[in-house]
Design goal:
Pathway (chains A, B, C): Pyrimidine metabolism; UMP biosynthesis via de novo pathway; (S)-dihydroorotate from bicarbonate: step 2/3
Number of domains of chain A: 2
Radius of gyration of chain A: 23 Å
Keywords (chains A, B, C): Allosteric enzyme, Pyrimidine biosynthesis, Transferase
Largest sheet of chain A: 5 strands, parallel
Pfam families (chains A, B, C): OTCace, OTCace_N
Order of helices and strands of chain A: HHHEEHEHEHHEHEHEHEHEHEHHEH
CATH superfamily of the largest domain in chain A: Aspartate/ornithine carbamoyltransferase
Largest interface: A-C, 46 and 52 residues
CATH architecture of the largest domain in chain A: 3-Layer(aba) Sandwich
CATH topology of the largest domain in chain A: Rossmann fold
Oligomer: homotrimer
Strand order of the largest sheet of chain A: 9-8-7-10-11
Number of helices of chain A: 15
Protein name (chains A, B, C): aspartate carbamoyltransferase
Shape of chain A: globular
Organism (chains A, B, C): Morus notabilis
Helix content of chain A: 25-40%
Distance between the termini of chain A: 30 Å
Chain lengths: ~400, ~400, ~400
């Protein structure tokens, strides 16, 4: 059935794929968007598989060259020539897009973490730092997020890639007084090789990925997902503690609204003998869906009101910020919640020597500044790990393993 | 006469031209701005010819090297060394700036289109993709236009060039509470090799070009011109239909206010046996100046209220958006105008197999989304062609043919 | 004592310094921030010395390679390999950060100016233009300043470096509703190699430099300092007049509020036989602190109400803008002050042939546009010199002499 459809959508706008050599009309290559669902295609396991593009054999032959897309088992891959390549290139990454934490299983997490660790070793001006040379990443931000944007842009540039920046992506549609996200994506994919999108609406990233012929990375969509944050958190635990099976993690602060801790709990459930402690003011307790999920996965968890006790037992104390904007007029409740569980030197005193304090940042005073000098304060290292995780994902999505 | 003036303006701020080798005063090179009109110089045909810079012979000799400016017949050219150059380099582009559609005649359009087509074939990391390495483009946007800006920045980066971005160029003058555009240009030309400018005032681009010692591209100046859009439209027709002589084009929608359709009509008049149909709600009919111009050029045109009939006869149906902001309080008139001529599957049914639907984007519902899957829906390919046209213009202005 | 502390802070987040080769925990490298004051370390003369980072000998050995940091006399240096290096590389620059004009003495100014002059000669696509390849500069602007930002970004890109841009750095803290500057710096230094910061608060740059493990350049902090402007002014005088000792400079306009003229007066005091004339409306006279300082340094100065007379005697007429915002409701006083000392053709007539007019830009009508064509109008060359000074500082801070 997919083959029957092949005459309908032979190519997309991806660079170098629509390049007829002659000066005649190129409409017969039919660069169009067909709304075949991925389920209809059904020839590949990934949830986020892109539409395969079927090429005439002749075209296909020409494409089997370094720097071009080529077809392997009906799936387009991209081979890239670099001087003295430091990474194996060619085997396709299992994911076409990075949209939500649920896409990742234990094996793929481990494999990504190995690539991230390779990224830590890349030297300036080395061939490794030029593997994405010639690639363009568009940062399509519908709401500003300087921190996340800089991290992605740094990752791309550290690998020799280039960036098209827009922090006012809403202007796309406002100018038009109503352009759809899909139309915007179709335009931007004509100018770039990968899209990093931040949006104010949950589900926007999935919609963009379904439209785009190039990879999409979700850099946060409203109350929805922020998968690269979840990955860097797990990566940091692995790097700091040296293992993920058997760890004890205390999640502290705003557990009701923080998508960070929710995603982290979700990913930790993929490991063995994990124990999770929830420490939060009552008004922002962890919600039942995550608790039920952990139980169903056989993960031990308990709620505690005693941060000292939890800090004494845990490998990781993961602190988060109480978000004032969730309390509306009730500033009294906010102030009460906010002052309840502070990580300070008293907490450090009871924490094991090998344990660490983590925080997704920015922090206010939920971790006191005198904690910063302690080697167990891992939060700035954690921020830096975001760079390596994003370098790894960009490499994998654009070049494969 | 030009020679008499030569002692007055020996050089501009263009990179590499003011580089005395000694540590003594360099004021004797006299880098100043002389308000000789181009007419006074009168030694070159182009309307947008820059001031020639006269160099002492000794200086001139030193400049005859790759990567430097050099004087040819009194006009400065730039030779560029690249490994294995994919383009002929050296012969000066006939234009110094791209300011308005009127600058382009049929021959130069054809030549630009050939370069644009070469651009489609450039591979990542090839020598072709590095021809603008070391060049800096400043995007000086006095009003945001993310779509246009990304397209230009992508074009520059695809050719190995670099970009200085400013979307808040108004801040230049607001900070100063009144710096002139000319002063801003003189500052920015010190930091870059080419300026792409978007302005809210008609004529601003021409003013900038008259001041700048480096090329200026008009990326839209208020209700005035947006010449690269006009070029990409004609280029798209040529690529999609395979010819420009003898084509039939239906211009649909807001013909009174759309600078796009006005420029397109203007450029089509340069070709033979063209027939144009105007299809628009009465309140936004094509204005008489364009109709008169077409008549004077011997181009056949007619107005029609029957989109089905026009679609049946045309090679190109060029749809545009009805702009709500033109209707003020009369939302009823807007709604009526807006719903009148929609391109949908009924239109596709009567369109010839070889014909295409175009649109400058963004679109609302004047083309229904079910049209997108038809191979004749050319509007996203058209957007992509903007990239190739801009790559071509950047190449031509900076390196010549 | 410094050695005793060495076990506490072995490394910072600087790229390539925290790269354990094994997959085990890397917390034992203890990448933390210790609040030892620089005075406590006290092993180096510079006021802005960064914390030295002490490395295990083994690590240190590995780092003695091109492109890596290496330890010399207890101070980390960075060696960089380039093809055919145009600059001597390796000897550490005396400054770790550029925060205020007071950091510079006569010798270091002269040495910086020599590097700036080398920068003028760098050719596109030469090895010289790639010396900062692989380096990332973050422009962290808490208030927009397009002019200054573009100048720094152009400088970085002219040397082959890359840029992370943020003009809305306030968003960092607003998103967090109160992240400290220190935390922001610790995050951004993880993504970049050098930070150029513009801030609305005096002293912010010094605070950032004290936190950062990478160099910080002050691009203006409120009413405080703007040291690169001061440097480019002195550099311009040296380039235009050919000397600094023995020059006569007229400072004109708003001398009370202009940080530019205050810094310039401060730096000129480092040279011999300098004579300074202050010409300003009474309400914005030069303040006593600078006058006292000049007197204490043996620099002659006088106040004058006669611009013609001063212009007749000076090598440099340095005009500045009267800032309306300083006058509040008293627009009458503003208008009076503003019209009092205008540089026009009458001033040019009495100025010596070798003299120049300077202005920090933007200008309004305190210099009439008919002055622009005179070779002695140096203000646009002055703006361009800002590029060379910033290129020199970036080179020196990142690569050393």
């Amino acid at each position: 059935m997919a083959m029957a459809a092949s005459s309908l959508f032979t190519c997309s706008f991806r660079e170098g794929m629509c390049s007829p050599e002659t000066k005649t009309s190129y409409k017969n290559l039919m660069c169009n968007y067909v709304n075949l669902t991925r389920k209809q295609l059904g020839c590949y396991g990934s949830m986020y598989l892109r539409h395969p593009r079927f090429l005439h054999d002749e075209e296909s032959m020409k494409l089997e060259q370094p720097g071009r897309d080529s077809k392997r088992n009906g799936i387009l891959c991209r081979a890239v020539k670099t001087d003295n390549p430091p990474f194996t290139v060619g085997k396709k990454f299992e994911l076409d897009d990075v949209i939500e934490a649920q896409q990742f299983d234990r094996d793929i997490l481990n494999a990504i973490f190995e690539v991230a660790q390779d990224m830590e070793k890349i030297k300036k001006n080395s061939s490794g730092s030029q593997i994405l040379k010639g690639y363009l990443m568009a940062t399509l931000f519908y709401e500003p997020s300087t921190r996340t944007r800089l991290s992605f842009e740094s990752a791309m540039k550290r690998l020799g890639g280039e960036v098209l920046t827009t922090e006012n992506a809403r202007e796309f549609s406002s100018a038009a007084k109503g352009e759809t996200l899909e139309d915007t994506i179709r335009t931007v994919e004509g100018y770039s090789d990968i899209i990093v999108m931040r949006h104010f609406e949950s589900g926007a990233a999935k919609k963009a990925a379904a439209t785009a012929g190039i990879p999409v990375i979700n850099a946060g969509d409203g109350p929805g997902q922020h998968p690269t944050q979840a990955l860097l958190d797990v990566y940091t635990i692995e790097r700091e503690i040296g293992k993920l099976d058997g760890i004890k993690v205390g999640l502290v602060g705003d557990l009701a609204n923080g998508r960070t801790v929710r995603s982290l709990a979700y990913l930790l459930a993929k490991y063995k003998d994990v124990k999770i402690y929830f420490v939060s003011p009552e008004v922002v307790n962890m919600k039942d869906d995550i608790k039920d999920y952990l139980t169903s996965m056989g993960i031990e968890w308990e709620e505690s009101a005693d941060l000292i006790d939890v800090a004494n037992k845990c490998d990781v104390v993961y602190q988060t910020r109480i978000q004032r904007e969730r309390f509306g007029e009730r500033i009294d409740l906010y102030e009460e919640a906010r002052g309840k569980y502070i990580v300070d030197r008293r907490i450090l005193e009871v924490m094991p020597k090998h344990a660490v304090v983590m925080h997704p940042l920015p922090r206010l005073d939920e971790i006191t500044v005198d904690v910063d000098v302690d080697p167990r304060a891992a939060y700035f290292r954690q921020a830096k790990n975001g760079l390596y995780i994003r370098m790894a994902l960009l490499k994998l999505l654009l070049l494969g393993w």
